[in-house]
């Protein structure tokens, strides 16, 4: 074996040993606000809310809720939450620039893999309802956090009920 090959093998081994103890943290949702110098930007005619109109700022006082809840081990949108989904659908269908991320969650009961799948089924159920009501599929992104991001840390039924949810997160 030549010295250059031996050197490459030793260097790779040292790099792999140095990186072995490091873990990659769970990424937070991306901040889509734009930085930079804003002093020369002309904002005449724009309000302080979303520059595209619509979005969560338009309905700040009376708007649609941004969380819907699910029954135990279910991915069916409850009747009482269908109106909320319809309001979001109307908002998204009327503004093609608006984008939403549906974040599916589950309570801690069940395996991690099962809960990731359940959170995904919940997010997909809401996505399907939005698309049936005229929202373009390109406007919707889904992600499942399973049991990893609980709303409530307790172990009572009311705590579990708060963790079985899909959250609407507008990304622009």
Task: Return residue spans where pLDDT drops below 50 for at least 5 consecutive residues.
Answer: 30-63
Quantity of strands, as a count: 4
Query: How far apart are the termini?
Result: 56 Å
Radius of gyration: 22 Å
Structural class: alpha+beta
| Inertia-based shape | flat
Major sheet, described briefly? 4 strands, mixed
Average pLDDT confidence is: 77
Strand content: 5-15%
Percentage of residues assigned to helices: 25-40%
- Order of strands across the biggest sheet? 1-4-2-3
Quaternary status of these chains? single chain
- Number of helical stretches of at least 4 residues: 5
Give the SSE order as H and E letters: HHEHEHEHE
Outline the structure in words.
By secondary structure, the protein is an alpha+beta fold. It contains five helices and four strands. The protein is flat and about 70 Å long. About 20% of the residues have low confidence. Helix 3 crosses helix 4. It has a four-stranded mixed sheet with strand order 1-4-2-3.
